[in-house]
Amino acid sequence: MSETAARALARMFERMSEAIETEKDHLSELDGAIGDGDHGITMSIGFKAVNAALAALDLDAASPSEVMSTAASGFLDAVGASTGPLYATGFRRAAQALAGRDRLDLAACRDMITAISEGIRDRGKAQRGDKTMFDVWLPAAEAATTALADGKSERDFWTAVTTAASNGAAATATMVATKGRAARLRERSLGQLDPGAVSANALIRAISNTL
Amino acid sequence: MALKTSSPRKGGTNRGNGPEGIDSIPLRYGDDPYVWACWLYYEDGMTQGEIAEAMGVSRATVNSYLADAREKGIVNISIEPARLASLTIAQELKRHFGLADCLVVPNDDDTRPLIGRLGAAGAQALTKMIKSGDTLAVAWGRTILSVGEHLEMGPLQDVTVVQATGGTTASFAYTPELTTAAVARAISARCVNITAPAIVASAQMHDMLLDEPLIREQFDTLARANRIVFGISSLRPNSTIHTSGFFESVPLQHYLAKGAAGVLAGRFIDERGRPVAGPLDDRTIGISLEMLRGIGTRVAVAGGFDKVPALLAALRGGYANVLVTDAATGAGILRADGVTSLDGKLSQRQKSTPVANAYRTHVKKFLNNPNDVVDEMLDGLIAAHRPYLLPVVGSRRALVARNGPRPGKVGLVIGGGTGHEPCFVGYVGKGLADAVALGNIFSSPPPDPIAKCAVAASGGVGVLFVYGNYAGDVMNFEMAAELVEEQGIAIRTVLTTDDIVSSPVEDKEGRRGVAGNFFVFKVAGAACDRGMTLDECEAVTRKANDRTYTVGVALESCSMPQTRRHNFEIGPDDMELGMGIHGEPGVSRERIRTADEIVDTIMDNIFKEMKAGAGDKVAVLVNSFGGTPLMELYILFRRVEQRLAAKNIVIEANWVGHYCTSLDMVGASISILHLDRQLADLLHHPCQTAILTINAPETDGAARG
């Protein structure tokens, strides 16, 4: 494979942006039910900005870590909202986790997903079951860790990660929101998928399709 | 012979059959035998036989009168709504999950703790189910102990109550031993405890203990159980499972990582009800999930929203065939499992055509490119309000007051999403906010413009951040604070939390900030302009926020420029109480009422918290969410004034208009600031902004305007 790791990551962000564009209206609709109806738009703006920032980067010279930190600033400067700080912190942590690495092997992928998950947790002070994007990133990170420890093949590794992510997203329908705007709805949030969790699932699928 | 009304029980002739056989119906029944029959039955409490005799007809005729009367609507049986709701929910749960039975306690009695109400209901269910000769297995837990405490039963014979799991140390009141003993005592049953620990150190120890004749005998009893009662524990962080000491925390994390959603009788299940394997499995002494499912009557007693995923898992897995829960949790379970028919049944309304048809597909708006609305608005706004503000270099999203910041003055930075105009940008200027950071529609600004604002507003003695309490704003402003503090600028933050219906009073810090921002900003701006210290500015701003009370009501939701559709629909006869300023759904949906009644609901809510007495002074803000015209705002203000006057509360100052909007949302909010001398003084402090100008008081001592 001649593609550099930095290029692969940049392509990953392109795929993520495409995935969000496909889901955009659906996400906003989900958000309209329990939030303020702008999640699809916010994510779309954020990932477009990431791609614009990466376009300005010399991908032949950049390290995977630099790609990640560029994505973090690009995202944050464009959107704010709550997804801004959450993903920016996640990507920044991923940049730290990838520092000094130039290969995106499964261990690097595991560390990247784990770092994003931890960044989101720390910034949002989220816990499992709060009905947030963390309910997708955490199981995905855990599945990645377990799959790698069990010596799974690359194919099985990604199957485990994406399955955990989509189960996590589906499970948010049974949770009562305790964070963000949906929390004001209390039990009225039951039965509704969390839009942040649904978009996280789309992002993880995009990661799996690229790497 | 005609019957006399004065002696209805006399006679009993058999000469007539059917209505035509009655030749003298007492006048007050208007010649209607149905009404007469119903009166005797429902009001006088007579039996059908007695009525037959009184009316001189057969018992079968009376029976058909009574049945027809219900069909004809002569008799309407009404059930108290909270009870009806719980019955409906119980029926739906029974149907949806194929349960043998279901008991749902109404949520009309919030004075008693849920555990007690569930315990009483669980006890009621058991009373109906336990028969002589039964063996009842009992799992441990707080709710099940409560069942035992509420249980009272007449004498039964040969009932055995057996503990469903091993025991634990008695560091909490609801150990397996105590729970089982409480149930056994209540029904005077033989009590069989499992005299081994619930969790042992190793699989070998588990096997050795189960080989012990004594324990084997106890297990044989458990295997004979034909009924079981158990609680369901959630794995949420605040669940008692974490504090009970039943499980060590490390294996608990393992089960969580493998997708465990709930625990019943010490065993873990995932969200579909499948067993979750883990390190404790062969170290746990107690009933297995398979054994449990083999028992004939399996009564689960549990309630509380945090238990919804766990309850759903237990129901999906078929572990319970009798469920005892509360109405709110029951409705939650159904909703979480995608049952939507419930809402229609609960509201008892006539079916109407879908609301969406009443709307146009798109809301008309003045737009160029919908993606440019924020930037184009800001271009116009910066041009229109040039006398008051200008952009901080390089950003439209950070605006600074022309005559605001000065050395030695605490800087006031406010901000938030756009779509609330004239909030926040209209309050930038001399005497009020020094700078404002703006995000996309309803979205917090990123840290960068906030940090730029802080630097621009800084006069060397610190900067105060005041903004609404929303997760996104908090994260971005916190990141910005970290950035500028590195540059040596001290930052203090006051979150506005004036929306009193968004969270109960115990969770005051969790409330969101809405139109009451207006008062909090005004006080903060005045404090900063007076040259008060950062500490003093923070304290008085906090006080203003603590004494500001807002309630909003929406009639129609707002539409985003990008979608030009309503974010969600509010039914033709409905209103949404506790509406936020982002078009997010409110706290409860109710039937729309008259303006006065709506104001009364709002003011009652406010008076519940605001301790204002006769002679106290307040400031009032009646604010439109964007789509409600001034005409209606004045109607609202009229009633607000009446309600305050009735309490001899003095309106020191008032504002009626568009002060904090939510795009084109139809609706309004009422904010009251309970003044004290200091707050009144700061409220009257002069300021010059695009939206609010207060001039210096007349020097001749005239009353303030």
From TrEMBL, chain A:
It comes from the Bacteria. Pfam families: Dak2. GO terms for cellular component: cytosol. It is an enzyme of class 2 (transferase). Keywords: Kinase, Transferase. This is Dihydroxyacetone kinase-like protein. Residues 7-209 form the DhaL domain. GO terms for biological process: glycerol catabolic process. It comes from Mycoplana azooxidifex. One of its GO terms (molecular function) is glycerone kinase activity. SUPFAM superfamilies: DhaL-like. PROSITE patterns: DHAL.
Automatic annotation (TrEMBL), chain B:
Transmembrane segments: none annotated. Its EC number is 2.7.1.-. Pfam families: Dak1, Sigma70_r4_2, Sugar-bind. The keyword Nucleotide-binding applies. Residues 369-694 form the DhaK domain. Keywords: ATP-binding, Kinase, Nucleotide-binding, Transferase. One of its GO terms (molecular function) is ATP binding. CDD domains: Sigma70_r4. One of its GO terms (biological process) is DNA-templated transcription initiation. InterPro entries: DhaK_dom, Dihydroxyacetone_Kinase, NagB/RpiA_transferase-like, RNA_pol_sigma70_r4_t2, RNA_pol_sigma_r3/r4-like, Sugar-bd_dom_put, WH-like_DNA-bd_sf. PROSITE patterns: DHAK (PS51481). PANTHER family: TRIOKINASE/FMN CYCLASE, TRIOKINASE_FMN CYCLASE. This is Dihydroxyacetone kinase-like protein. It comes from Mycoplana azooxidifex.
